[in-house]
Amino acid sequence: MHGTEPVDVIVVDDHPVYREGLAMLLSSLDGMRVVATASDGSAAVESVDAHQPDVVVMDVQMPGRDGISATRDILARHPHIAVLVLTMSDDDETVFAAMRAGARGYLLKGAAQSEISQAIEMVASGGLVFGASVARRVGEFFTSGPPWNVPEEAFPQLTAREREILNLLAAGRSNAQIAQALFLAPKTVRNNTSNIFAKLQVADRAEAIVRARESGLGRS
Length: 220
What we know:
By secondary structure, the protein is an alpha/beta fold. It has helices spanning 16-27, 41-51, 67-77, 92-101, 113-124, 132-144, 160-170, 175-182, 186-200, 205-214, and strands at residues 7-12, 32-38, 55-58, 82-87, 105-108, 129-130. The protein contains ten helices and six strands, in the order E-H-E-H-E-H-E-H-E-H-E-H-H-H-H-H. It has a six-stranded parallel beta sheet with strand order 2-1-3-4-5-6, with helices on both faces. Helix 2 (41-51) runs parallel beside helix 3, helix 3 (67-77) packs parallel to helix 4 (92-101) and helix 7 packs across helix 9.
């Protein structure tokens, strides 16, 4: 793995007691070194840039910038760094958002200290780690794929993202529901929807839905 070198870790969590407690615990373990802590996603990105750790232990729900967008940004800049999500939330949308962002592991905060430290070592070695409560859904995600896959031959003038949004429009989703399903900002959905209407040369949402359904979208 790292030979005799310790695993350098950054702990990201908005709760000071939990953050510092976990940092102290990990620092006390042989083969592990906490090089920094951060209280939100923006600070996490800056800290990773500065310290170049092996592993980032990342919370999800934080004021300001959340852990999912921070993970995406960190891995775009430093694809060799491993992100281990450690959060209270085990709902499907959060799990799959973390996976799509590139996280190599996902544990709940109730995990035992030994499980957390083993997970850090595992993702540092290039492995994948998921807690028992999310492992089944992770397997289903990989075998079935996300539910909004859209055939590329439908509306070739649209981008892949626009086809995804049109598919969900045709399924009767609101802009807010589409934003949540695809982990996009509402403004991004609105802008893409306007582009879709222009490219399809339709006047409104209802006409776009009719066109989409005629082409087989909205049924997944």
